[in-house]
From TrEMBL:
Pfam families listed in its UniProt record: HGTP_anticodon, tRNA-synt_His
Family membership: Belongs to the class-II aminoacyl-tRNA synthetase family.
Tagged with keyword Transmembrane helix: no
Keywords: Aminoacyl-tRNA synthetase, ATP-binding, Cytoplasm, Ligase, Nucleotide-binding, Protein biosynthesis
Catalyzed chemical reaction(s): tRNA(His) + L-histidine + ATP = L-histidyl-tRNA(His) + AMP + diphosphate + H(+)
Domain Aminoacyl-transfer RNA synthetases class-II family profile intervals: 35-333
GO BP term, example: histidyl-tRNA aminoacylation
Protein's recorded name: Histidine--tRNA ligase
SUPFAM superfamilies, per database record: Class II aaRS ABD-related, Class II aaRS and biotin synthetases
Signal peptide: none
């Protein structure tokens, strides 16, 4: 669609093509801010209360980092990465996720010498050239937690518990889907078994699944292609092929979760879409009757015990992490009726009447701001009535009214928004007086 702008000065209507958002990208407008603030505050609070430090990674990394970590035969690397050659002839990629970058940073900054596990969190945009649909964007934010340097199953449980608490705090009901995919060695045998099982039904497989059969057979387990539900029912289950250590590890995780009363379901078909996983894997989904929504994972994660070594770090550096899709978390909050006031709430609202008071108002407003008082204004509005209505909407406790007369007298009116009572005070003392009144109001 071509949007038309009008060149008012020239008076002639000229068709100007307004640049549009890229497909799959999204503007996050100020009206959404209460949700974003709530999610980021909850993320920061939960992460810091469990001693995770903030990690800010670059958006651009060498392409090989993702190819080696996520795996060449995965959807993300095969089809979804924004990759290009930069002016210095390096193949670079807009990060599709942050676990690979976190692992690289851990190695590059010698974090192996710190107290283990090293716990880090992030809240950053990621990029995947995915097929856009509800809850699926080409730029999306993830809140992620990574704990690198410990194999203790209590960490797996703790990460799930943290996520559970995070959602509880936001008022979203979720459950966890859990599985264990064992070690690479134990998986190798299982995959052979799985391939020979699906080979019998080769003719019934879709083209996509035929490709998976040779390239990435585990993904047959979570294939959404038609007819797969039925075939999958008879497939060998990975839990039966786990090595003893992985089995014990998984049992311990479940025990801890039972103890902490975190709701979960075992899902033998959960394999995740990234190659670096070992042992415990999980996803978080909304508890809802809406089948489509229930399918959209709010987040996912698991152990990646061999990734650090694979990228050239110290042998035997086990790790675990999770990432939540922030847009999906916010969608779930809205779906589950979590509401925020659209208006920013303030303590004080400044009302002005006329030019002289607007001029003086600029300075008064700045003094309140410097004193740390939350204050709003509507310099663009004229009538007092409209300004008081705005004060009301923003739940201001006090309104300040500055008219022409007050400017001349060096005074200002303080209005208690609840009782409507007004008093006139010296304008030089207004900040101190209002601060005291707000303290008394509590
Ligand atoms: P992932 O499952 O690829 O895992 O992504 C985690 C979450 O990011 C998803 O559950 C979803 O909520 C969100 N997400 C993914 N793609 C999109 C998209 N196109 N649009 C909107 N949201 C999306 C990872 O990224 C791993 N790095 C998680 C992890 C951390 N594993 C260990 N540590």
């Amino acid at each position: 669609m071509i949007a038309k702008n009008v060149d008012a000065k020239a008076g002639d209507r000229k068709a100007v093509k307004t640049p549009q958002l890229l497909r799959g990208f999204k503007d996050i407008l100020p009206g959404e801010e209460p949700y974003w603030n709530a999610v980021e505050d909850a993320a920061r609070n939960i992460a810091t209360s469990y001693s995770f430090g903030r990690l800010r990674l670059p958006i651009l990394e060498q392409t090989s980092l993702f190819e080696r970590s996520i795996g060449k035969a995965t959807d993300v690397v095969e089809k979804e990465m924004y990759t290009f050659v930069d002016p210095s002839n390096t193949r670079v990629t807009l990060r599709p996720e942050a676990t690979a970058g976190a692992a690289r940073a851990y190695i590059e900054h010698g974090m192996v010498n710190k107290t283990q596990p090293v716990k880090m969190w992030y809240f950053e945009p990621m990029f995947r050239h995915d097929r856009p649909q509800a809850g699926r964007y080409r730029q999306f934010y993830q809140f992620g937690l990574e704990a690198i340097g410990s194999s203790d199953p209590i960490l797996d449980a703790q990460m799930i518990l943290m996520t559970h608490r995070f959602f509880k705090g936001l008022g979203v009901e979720v459950k966890f889907l859990l599985n264990s995919i064992g070690t690479e060695e134990s998986r190798r045998e299982y995959i052979m078994e799985l391939v020979s099982y699906f080979k019998q039904f080769r003719k019934r497989l879709s083209e996509v699944d035929k490709k998976r059969l040779t390239k990435n057979p585990l993904r047959l387990l979570d294939s959404k292609e038609e007819g797969m539900d039925e075939l999958r029912d008879g497939a060998p289950q990975i839990l039966d092929w786990l090595d003893e250590d992985s089995k014990q590890h998984f049992m311990k995780v479940l025990e801890y979760l039972d103890e902490a009363e975190v709701p979960y379901e075992l899902n033998p078909y959960l394999v995740r879409g990234l190659d670096y996983y070992t042992k415990t894997v999980f996803e978080v989904v909304e508890i809802t009757d809406d089948a489509e929504r229930a399918q959209n994972s709010l987040g996912g994660g698991g152990r990646y015990d061999t990734l650090i070594e694979l990228l050239g770090g110290r042998e035997d550096t086990p790790a675990i992490g999770i990432a939540l899709g922030v847009e999906r978390v916010i969608m779930a909050m809205k779906n589950q009726g979590v509401e925020f006031s659209k208006e920013r709430e303030v303590d004080v609202f400044f009302c002005q009447l006329g030019d002289a008071s607007r001029k003086k108002g600029l300075i008064v407003f700045e003094e309140f701001r410097k004193a740390g008082v939350s204050i709003a204004e509507a310099f663009g509005k004229g009538a007092l009535k409209g300004q008081l209505e705005m004060a009301d909407k923003q739940k201001a406790k006090i309104a300040l009214i500055l008219g022409q007369k007050e400017v001349l007298d060096g005074t200002i009116i303080i209005r208690d928004m609840e009782s409507g009572a007004q008093e006139i005070v010296n304008i030089d003392k207004v900040v101190a007086i209002v601060k005291r009144q707000l303290e008394m109001m509590g």
